[in-house]
Each structure stands twice: as C-alpha cells, then as structure tokens.
Design brief:
By secondary structure, the chain is mainly β. It has a single domain, classed as Oxidoreductase, molybdopterin-binding domain (Sulfite Oxidase, Chain A, domain 2), CATH 3.90.420. Helices cover 9% and strands 32% of the residues. It contains 3 helices and 12 strands; from the N terminus they run E-E-E-E-H-E-E-H-E-E-H-E-E-E-E. Strands 1, 2, 5, 6, 9, 10 and 11 form a 7-stranded mixed beta sheet that branches. Strands 4-3-12-7-8 form a 5-stranded mixed beta sheet. Strand 3 and strand 4 form a beta hairpin. The longest helix is centred in the middle third of the chain and has 8 residues.
C-alpha cells in the first residue's frame, strides 16, 4: 500500500492553496513520518511543562490541558517531503491560552518544543503566537491517534509540518534560538512552504 499516493487537485479547490513543489496526498491518506518508535504513553503520569523566560512556569496534566478552552480551526498542512493535505479540522488549545497564563518575559524571543525521545524544534515567538497555532489533541472530530501525535502535538500550519511536533512534553521560552533535531541535520529553520525553505 502506497501511503504517499498522490491525488489530483479536486474540482473546486484553488490551486493557489498548494505551495510550490507540493502535491496533494490522496484524501484517505495521512502519511506517517517520524524518527523513532511511537511512545507508549501513560496518560496518568503524562504532563506538559512550560518554562524558561516566563513569569509563571506551569506544569499541566492531560486532564488540565483538556479542561482549557477548546478551539477548532480548519487548516491545510504541508510536509517537507512534498505532500499536502487541505481542509482538515483540528481541535485543541489556542497557544494564546498558554501565553496568557505563563506571561513570557521581555527577553523571550524563541520557543523550543520538547517532545518524547528528546526530539526538539524551535520557532520565533511571533510565529508561535498566531491565531492558527494550537496545542492539538483532535483531528476531524476524533482524538489524534498515537501515530499522529496523541496525546498532544504542536500545530503550526504556516510552517512545514515537522515544526508541528508530535508527542509534545514541553515549551521552553528562550532569549536566543537553538536549532532543533531536524534543523541540526540539514532542515532549514525557516520552514516556510511558500518560500520552499526546506533545507539549508
């Protein structure tokens, strides 16, 4: 079975929604790409830590994350390996809910996402603080599967999808940027699908 099977642009879809170099994956395909195994998460001990250049560091249980105000968005996603999906519905917590609680200091310029198995990726704070960025736990009306990032992943639709880090465990607010896992291995830190900043 070809998980990367491509689809022609469906009737009624504006081709301008598809960045250069991308093709649509088939509607029934969401390709799986990750480094290392899928975590075996014990949700009773799972937590999300938000720390660094913030006034109020917090640690949240999964129940506490799910108790935060829920936001739903419709967004397209674009993988650096050249597939895209359009118009999926995502559920989670708006990043602003977290920012309001932790209050980044004036020194905070970047945020590092820390995930299971030591995976990391970073974003400038103004990129993270956007209306379509979620701490995401749901996709098209159901919880994410473990393979796709359950219990929590970052969702940053305007960037290549590796920036939407799976199996999120922490957000570290930083004064200076540090390159994350794939960025240290040749992926471009900018990760802009519309500029095709795929690799250094």
């Amino acid at each position: 079975m070809d998980l990367f099977r491509r689809s022609r642009i469906p009737a009624g879809v504006d081709p301008k929604r598809i960045p250069p170099g991308q093709t649509l994956t088939a509607p029934d395909r969401w390709p799986l790409l990750h480094f290392g195994p899928v975590p075996q998460t014990d949700i009773k001990t799972w937590s999300l830590k938000v720390f660094g250049e913030v006034e109020n560091p917090i640690t949240l249980s999964y129940d506490e994350v799910r108790a935060l105000p829920r936001k739903e968005i419709v967004a397209d996603i674009h993988c650096v390996t050249a597939w895209s999906r359009l118009g999926d519905t995502w559920q989670g917590v708006a990043i602003q809910e977290i920012l309001q609680r932790v209050k980044p200091t004036s020194a905070a310029k970047y945020v590092m996402a820390h995930c299971e198995y030591g995976y990391t990726t970073s974003l400038p704070l103004p990129v993270l603080d956007d209306d379509d960025v979620l701490l995401c736990y749901g996709w098209n009306g159901s919880d994410l599967t473990p393979e796709h990032g359950w219990p929590l992943r970052l969702l940053v639709p305007k960037k290549y999808f590796w920036k939407s880090a799976k199996w999120l465990r922490g957000l570290e607010f930083m004064a200076k940027n540090r390159l994350g896992f794939w960025e240290q291995r040749g992926y471009h830190d900018d990760a802009d699908p519309w500029q095709e900043t795929r690799y250094w």
